[in-house]
Amino acid sequence: MRIVRTTSWREDVPLARPYAIAGGAWDTAQLVFVALETDEGDTGYGLAAPAEEVTGEDAAAAAGALTSSELGWLLDSEVGVASPSSGSPVWAGDVAARVKGPAARAAVDMALWDLVGRRTGVKLVDVFGRVHGALPTSVTIGVKSVAATLEEAEEYVGRGLVCLKVKGGVDVDEDIERLARLRERFGARVTLRCDANMGYDTAALARLVARMQELALELVEQPLTPALDAALLEHEPWARARFVADESVHGVDDLERLAALGAPFGAVNIKLMKCGGPTPARALAAAAHRAGLGVMWGCMDESALGIAAALHTAYAAPATRWLDLDGSLDLARDPFVGGFTLDGPASAPFERRDYVQPLDRPGLGAEPAPPPCTT
Ligand SMILES: [Mg+2]
Question: Rounded to an integer, what distance in angstroms lies between the CA atom of residue 89 and that of residue 94?
Fold first, then answer.
């Protein structure tokens, strides 16, 4: 199977629900797609969802890295996998060396894996080797007032989305109030996560940790800036087990740095756009596993295509503990269809529809959306 044509295109998609976090506000997802066609008639699709403050590249840079002239080296390339279980596709070194920017690399890597799955007729999670059944994903509530937080949560819970990730980090007392009111309103029915996006100082974090058990907070993501990673060690082991590194970890080097500090976090948030696609994500998840860390799989504002790629990778990684793969749910329109379904276990004591399953289709299981009907 050889690649005979590459195409790419950019789509800026409005968010149905613009939101703010500590450090910024967003109303549009800037997406760059790539399609790789083979001499056997298969097409593999990939997505770059860059975020300059996280991946160091903006949408223009990602689009520039994915033009057919930049990807000319892929033409005539043989697509294959030396050993799927070891995670060593034949292209890994080439993509890392030739494609600029982690989100652009993620697009090419996921398109190549999509081709491997399509060629073999197997969904990607089974190419990798599935080790998990379905897990729930959280949905994200941005930084907003107590009343607006409760209103948005009401809507999610009504839709069966009961795992809530509350963005905070601007004012810890307001964050605690929002979490307390959510717990009071919904009781044990909801799971509560908090992501401070580096917004707390050590005193603010101490105030939150003092309430963590009472609020039954499942995890706290990136409470402090990476420069303060060592300060997390002042907290008790039960709290550290629930600290998740996001901005502190981009690659395996960061895991080594954290291990040398003495393991301030219990888990790490892996995003395909941050590390460069399923291949490096699998290596990072394996390194996290060896270090005794859990993995939370995260995402950007992105298409179901990218969410599917993360999901296939997550369910094949033994270290996977939590999913935060809600990035396509708030797109006003998704340029791709399929990718995953949301459902709940029949045994749940109330209706929930937040367990994510990849589709039973070869590769990533997502296709370009049909053009809108114009008649
Ligand atoms: Mg985060």
Answer: 10
Residue 35's beta-bridge partner residues?
A: 7, 45
pLDDT tens column, 287-330: 999 999 999 999 999 999 999 999 999 999 999 999 999 999 98
Q: How confident is the model at residue 89 (pLDDT cuts 50, 70, 90)?
A: confident
Measured in whole angstroms, the distance separating CA 243 from the mean position of its chain's CA atoms is 17
Instruction: Please say if the pLDDT value at position 87 is more than 60.
Output: no
Rounded to whole angstroms, the Cα distance separating 168 from 60 reads: 30
- Distance between CA 365 and CA 309 in Å, rounded? 9
233 DSSP 8-state letter? G
Q: What are phi and psi of 191, to 5 degrees?
A: -100, 135
What is the token pair recorded at 374? Answer: 């114009």
pTM over 0.90: yes
Question: What's the CA-to-centroid distance between 244 and ligand 1, angstroms?
Answer: 9
What distance in Å separates the CA atoms of residue 119 and residue 78, rounded to the nearest whole number? 12
* pLDDT tens by residue, 126-174: 999 999 999 999 999 999 999 999 999 999 999 999 999 999 999 999 9
Question: Cα(19) to centroid of ligand 1, in Å?
Answer: 14
CA of 99 to the centre of ligand 1 (A): 25
Quote the mean pLDDT of the chain: 94
- What is the 55 CA–ligand 1 centroid distance (Å)? 13
58 C-alpha vs ligand 1 centroid, how far in Å? 18
Q: How much distance in Å is there from the Cα of 325 to the middle of ligand 1?
A: 12
What is the rounded (10 degree) CA torsion for 337, 12, 300, 361?
20
Contacts of 14 (CB under 8 A, 6+ apart): 27, 28, 29, 331, 332
Q: How many CA atoms lie within 13 A of 312 on its CB side?
A: 30
Buried b / exposed e over 126-163, threshold 16 CB at 10 Å, is bbbeeeeebbbbbbbbbbbeeeebbebbeebbeebbbb
The pLDDT of residue 75? 92
In the chain, the percentage of residues whose pLDDT exceeds 70 is: 97
266 CA distance to ligand 1 centroid (A)? 15
